[in-house]
Design brief:
Rossmann fold, 5-stranded parallel sheet, 2 domains, globular, 5 strands, alpha/beta
Length: 215
């Protein structure tokens, strides 16, 4: 992969980051994904005292159906236990299959347990921060939320199960969704700078369109 593609991908990666400042909260809500480092980071935030309750949300989605044999929420909870998070400090929502359902179904579980958080730390993959935030603001606009992700630089993010080409394809697809989802009622509107959209169009023209939706 040449440096031009890496430069374009870095531009989109940076756009997806919101750079929120972490604050103590009532709940850490980690959204399921194909990156178990999200679970590890959410557990670390709990162990550092950022919130007294940790919640994992997610069934098996398009990116995890061949990776996990049980819901993402349960996989993530297992990881949190291994890091020392007690069961009594965790809630699970193992039914949702997309980000909107993550929020809606988590609200339902919280209500059933009598939990009414004032502030939530929402944890996702680095390149899904913005999309997760936009969805949260649409589905639960009155709730205060801070978005966080594992603090891993773009150049160090890739693994055997998340190689660079795959990550770029997913980032490009998420940027398209940020552009088109507000009209569908799925997310709030967000500005996409011209240079970011130009990077998107160039990467699509170079073949990084595997996760695009038909508009």
């Amino acid at each position: 992969m040449n440096s031009h593609i890496t430069h374009l991908a870095q531009r989109i990666w940076d756009y997806h980051h919101l750079n929120h400042s972490l604050q103590k909260a009532d709940l850490i809500l980690a959204l399921g994904s194909n990156d178990i480092r999200v679970a590890e980071y959410a557990a670390e935030l709990y162990l550092q005292g950022f919130a007294p309750l940790l919640m994992f949300s997610g069934n098996v989605g398009a990116l995890t159906k061949d990776q996990f044999t049980k819901p993402e929420a349960e996989v993530f909870a297992d990881i949190a236990r291994q890091k020392g998070v007690p069961d009594e400090a965790m809630l699970l929502e193992p039914e949702s299959t997309n980000t909107g359902e993550n929020i809606d179904f988590s609200r339902r579980v919280l209500a059933a347990h009598g939990v009414a958080p004032t502030r939530i730390i929402l944890v996702q993959k680095p390149y899904m921060e913005r999309r997760a935030f936009a969805t949260f603001r649409k589905r639960w606009p009155e709730q205060e939320v801070v978005v966080a992700s594992p603090p891993i630089p773009f150049t160090e993010y890739f693994t055997d199960w998340l190689p660079k080409d795959k990550v770029i394809n997913i980032m490009v697809g998420d940027l398209q969704r940020i552009k088109i989802y507000p009209a569908k009622g799925f997310q709030i509107e967000q500005d996409v700078p011209d240079e970011v959209w130009q990077a998107y169009e160039t990467l699509v023209s170079l073949g990084y369109g595997q996760h695009l939706m038909k508009e």
